[in-house]
Design a protein that fits this description.
The complex is a heterodimer. Chain A is of the alpha/beta class. Chain A is built from 12 helices and 19 strands. In chain A, helix 11 crosses helix 12. A 5-stranded antiparallel beta sheet of chain B has the order 4-3-2-1-5. A two-stranded antiparallel sheet of chain B has the order 6-7. Chains A and B meet through helix 1, helix 2, strand 7, helix 7 and helix 8 of A and helix 4, helix 9, helix 10, helix 13 and helix 14 of B.
């Protein structure tokens, strides 16, 4: 499988590098924006949408007159869901195509693989997906949610509004679920949940036979205490999981499932009638009712020429990130990386949930947290939201390794992992 | 005398009349009250709405049932202009308003003029409990059964008397059993004497199952010392019984996983097992079958909605034909030039698999496509302590049927005879007048077609996305190699062995480690028996 994926990558890379090179000969009076999202392979299912969203945003901006009097030009490459290829493609975007900023990556492992490239070539990456935190890098802006902007409020909601006392933490076996569950477990125990009331379960990528696990969850839930499932199950495995839940009759009123990786796009492949009431925590839902969002949805449907296309949270993150970048470049008057990095901090732009998001010195942004319930039409209905905006916390306060760390990229500190206990930059857990 | 009689009757007439007037008036007033209460559902937050629901439930008036049902289903809307609450159904972009009490249609509104009354899980639970109480006396036994089950799952001391009244009036045997349990469950949380509670514990303990376990565990937490031993004994008893059933449940899950493996591998047992082609595009044939199902359902949804339950039956032959044709094209176009060169076949078929994936991604988009379950494939039923889901049951039946059909085709038909002849001794078969290239093409098409109908079944339990096939290709090869290349029975036994092994390892080792262990065991097994479970003997093997 792995060899197969890699060879796929190599094959497609060969095809696509020719197209990318052609782009490099374009006129010089444009500002180039790199788009680094997989258009083939397993992650294409999620990432292709983000590529389209970026192309739409760039097109819209050009209609408004571009940036600094120049037109924006998108350079699209396909890293083919192949992690080492992400690094190669990032290098190609920065050094061959000379892009001013890159919008891309989905999985944490792809982000980790491009980090050294952005550091070495000093360019800017906007990362739009909710992730496990425990990272803050000078060249990266994290516009998705950190654990305290998604996972922790979701657990709080279940504890307070649903009276949940017993927890199943179910996830796919890789870095994001493992770190998130570690944070959640520490958090739950700090809230007085007993260790025997927490069940942690990991499954491989693309797991399709959920019979045993769903029946285990039912068994775990029959201890006379209100039980909920916190799901960090990723991608393709969700559909068979929800189908099995529906078939085995696990109702949201009895054992609610709150998911961090299931959005409108994932529900589009599913009959949601048996799932009504199961929850998701995001910073944006398509159903959020405000003029900016209505406008965005209208533009998106017109751009994709498909009336049924849905929007989702990572798209909003790109919307925020792109607008922040525009504003910072205008403020700096140049696309020069160091100037833009300085200008980015403190930039504030409207988000689509009806407020403003601000870039903080730790390169994370402020967002509201929404809890939504799945509806029969495949949309979410917001049932709860944080009263104000939540600041992304890159180093979790609930993990012993990172609780003393902070990040501040403003001079004079300019450090992503400052240890407040020892007073030194470069603490443990970097 | 006569006068007196006339006077009397006049009096009674008057009394009746007055009575009638009062009853009528109270009726009207009650209806006004109800309407006001229903309108109040639209005000305030979730917990205020929940209080209104409880207040409505206290009236005990069955007229509010439709409104509550609509609330739970998310069909209750408030008109923004006058704060009136209506039931709705959508028609052509607008919403048809229905009076919450009379059930009559009273007009239409654009959806912008109405605000949906939001529900969340805890509100839905409140509504469910309220409906349980209200529908307990319904004339329909099915509705009563549902009401009793609701009360059983969410017992409350308040409902105890209601349950007892209903129990006394109940005639239907099945409803009565559930009601008795519901009464016992409510009794446990009430303040009745311990003697009655002990009897209740016995009733719940006897019922068994996860729900009873849940009830008893909850009761144990708040029980005093006189009841504790009883509850603990009942819990231990249920757990003993469940441990027995758990083994059975594991076997069932194993059979079900085995049937999925069998379906995925059986086409490969032909192309790889019988013909010896390392066909990396096998998974993509499965995917094409699943997409055929999607297209069929899409056509049915838009043009013939009544046929939806037949969609799978219609998709089966189509999937077979589509993937069979693709298989035929692949064999004639590419593979026939590569016979005897396994490495090149591997690379070529794998290239084909990439092309097919990307083609599907371009045509249908990269996202999952929705393939619905027909009603006869949804849900589950209980068999003793086993929970058996319908879709899994049908997939097992289907896998075995496909296997039997294939076996019949290979062993009892002239075409099967030719296939076996060609694979066993190509030159001899050719000398006997069999058109070997044609037989090769048909065999490959048959294997691909079978993979296609496997895709129809797998679309019911898995994603329909361009990546569908990738997940099954490794498993398929594993099954065929483990069972013994070239032997259909080996594939059958191999699939079910691996399925059951996997499911017995999973509870102890977890899904990730379980899968690794299975792989390690297979590697060890292949070391010992390189030709798999059922090795073919004779000259064909050496050829």
């Amino acid at each position: 499988m792995n060899i197969k994926a890699r060879l796929t990558g190599a094959f497609l890379a060969a095809v696509l590098s020719t197209t990318a090179l052609n782009g490099a000969f374009a006129a010089d009076d444009t500002i180039k924006v790199g788009i680094l999202h997989s258009l083939s392979g397993t992650m294409a299912i999620s990432e292709t949408t983000l590529k389209d969203a970026m192309l739409m945003l760039i097109e819209e901006q050009n209609k408004k007159g571009g940036l600094l009097g120049k037109k924006l030009e998108a350079v699209v490459v396909d890293p083919a869901s192949d992690w080492p290829l992400f690094a190669e493609k990032a290098r190609e975007l920065i050094s061959v195509n000379d892009v001013s900023a890159v919008f891309g990556c989905w999985t944490s492992v792809s982000r980790k693989s491009v980090l050294p490239v952005f550091e070495e070539l000093n360019s800017i990456l906007f990362y739009p997906v909710q992730y496990e935190g425990e990272e803050s890098q000078r060249n990266v802006f994290y516009t998705g949610a950190a654990p305290n902007q998604q996972a922790i409020p979701a657990v709080d909601y279940l504890m307070e509004n649903e009276g949940v006392e017993r927890w199943v933490l179910a996830g796919t076996d890789y870095v994001y679920p493992r770190t998130t569950n570690k944070i959640l477990e520490a958090y739950l125990i700090s809230k007085g949940v007993k260790p025997e009331d927490i069940m942690i379960n990991y499954t491989p990528f693309g797991h399709s036979d959920w019979q045993t696990i769903v029946s285990d969850i039912k068994g775990f839930g029959s201890a006379g205490k209100k039980t909920a499932v916190v799901s960090t199950i990723n991608g393709d495995a969700n559909v068979p999981f929800y189908k099995e839940l529906g078939n085995q009759g696990v109702k949201a009123e009895d054992i609610p499932v709150v998911a961090f990786s299931v959005g409108e796009e994932e529900l589009a492949g599913l009959d949601t009638a048996p799932l009504v009431g199961h929850l998701a925590a995001w910073n944006y839902f398509q159903s959020v009712d405000n003029p900016a969002n209505a406008e965005f949805i209208k533009t998106w449907k017109a751009y994709t020429k498909n009336d049924k296309r849905v929007t989702n949270d990572p798209m909003e993150a790109h919307y925020i990130g792109f607008n922040m970048w525009l504003k910072a470049v205008e403020k700096a008057g140049t696309t020069d990386t160091d100037a833009v990095l300085d200008a980015m901090i403190g930039v504030s732009v409207p988000n689509l949930s009806g407020g403003y998001s601000t870039m903080m010195p730790n390169h994370h942004i402020t967002k509201p947290v929404l809890i939504g319930e799945i509806q029969a039409d495949g949309q979410f209905e917001t049932v709860w939201e944080t009263p104000g905006l939540v600041v992304g916390d890159e180093w979790s306060d609930y993990l012993p390794d990172s609780k003393d760390l902070i990040s501040d990229w403003r001079a004079p500190m300019s450090c992503g992992n400052f240890n407040v206990a020892t007073g030194k930059c470069g603490g443990k857990g970097s | 005398m006569l006068m007196r009689l006339a006077y009397r009757s006049l009096q009674s007439l008057l009394v009746t009349f007055c009575l009638f007037i009062t009853v009528f008036a109270t009726d009207l007033r009650a209806e006004d009250d109800l309407r006001a209460m229903i309108n109040a559902l639209g005000e305030g937050n979730f917990s205020q709405t929940a209080k209104q629901v409880e207040a409505l439930a206290k009236t005990g008036d069955p007229k509010i049932v439709p409104a509550l049902e609509a609330l739970a289903a998310g069909d209750l809307y408030q008109r923004k202009s006058d704060k009136q609450v209506f039931l709705t159904k959508s028609s052509a972009g607008n919403l048809v308003l229905i009076d919450p009490l009379s059930g009559e249609e009273v007009g239409t509104e654009a959806s912008g003029a109405l605000a949906k009354i939001k529900v969340n899980n805890s509100l839905r639970r409140t509504v469910r409990a309220a409906l349980g109480g209200l529908t307990l006396m319904s004339p329909d036994a099915g509705v009563r059964l549902q009401a009793a089950q609701t009360l059983l799952r969410a017992p409350s001391a308040d409902a105890l008397e209601q349950v007892e009244t209903a129990l006394a009036a109940e005639t239907d045997g099945r409803v009565k059993t559930v009601l008795e349990r519901a009464r016992a469950a409510a009794l446990l949380v009430s303040d009745r004497p311990d003697g009655e509670k002990k009897a209740a514990i016995a009733i719940i303990g006897k019922a068994g199952g996860q729900d009873s376990l849940s009830l008893l565990s909850a009761a144990l937490a708040s029980a005093d010392d006189t009841l504790k031993p009883d509850i603990e004994a009942a819990i231990a008893d249920i757990q003993d019984r469940q441990a027995l059933w758990a083994a059975g449940q594991n076997v069932w899950y194993g059979l079900s996983l085995g049937s999925v493996l069998l379906l995925a591998a059986i086409g490969l047992a032909i192309t790889f097992g019988v013909m010896g082609i390392i066909n990396m595009a096998h998974g993509e044939m499965v995917m094409l079958g699943a997409y055929t199902t999607f297209v069929v359902q899409e056509v049915i949804r838009t043009s013939f909605p009544g046929l939806f339950d037949w969609s799978l039956a219609i998709a089966l032959p189509l999937a077979f034909l589509v993937t069979g044709a693709v298989g035929l094209a692949i064999e004639r176009g590419i593979i026939r030039f590569l016979y005897g060169r396994p490495l090149e076949t591997l690379l070529a078929t794998w290239g084909i698999s990439l092309i097919l994936q990307q083609a599907v991604r371009t045509i249908f988009g990269p996202t999952n496509r929705e393939v619905g379950n027909p009603s006869w494939m949804s849900g589950a039923f209980e068999l003793g302590g086993l929970t058996i889901t319908w879709n899994r049951l049908w997939i097992i039946v289907f896998a075995l049927a496909v296997f039997a059909a294939l076996l019949f085709l290979l062993k009892k038909t002239p075409m099967g005879l030719q296939m076996r002849a060609v694979t066993q001794n190509r030159r001899m078969a050719s000398s006997m007048g069999i058109r070997t290239p044609w037989v090769d093409a048909l065999t490959f098409a048959l294997g691909s077609g079978i993979a296609g109908i496997a895709g129809v079944a797998l679309s019911q339990i898995d994603n329909v996305s361009p990546n569908l096939g990738q997940g099954y290709i490794i498993d398929s090869f594993m099954v065929v190699v483990f069972g013994g290349v070239g032997n259909l029975w080996g594939t059958l036994v191999g699939a079910f062995t691996l399925g059951i092994l996997n499911k017995f390892l999973e509870p102890y080792a977890g899904a990730v480690l379980g899968k690794i262990l299975v792989l390690v065991l297979i590697i060890l097994f292949i070391q010992k028996r390189p030709r798999g479970l059922f090795a073919l003997k004779g000259r064909a093997v050496e050829a």
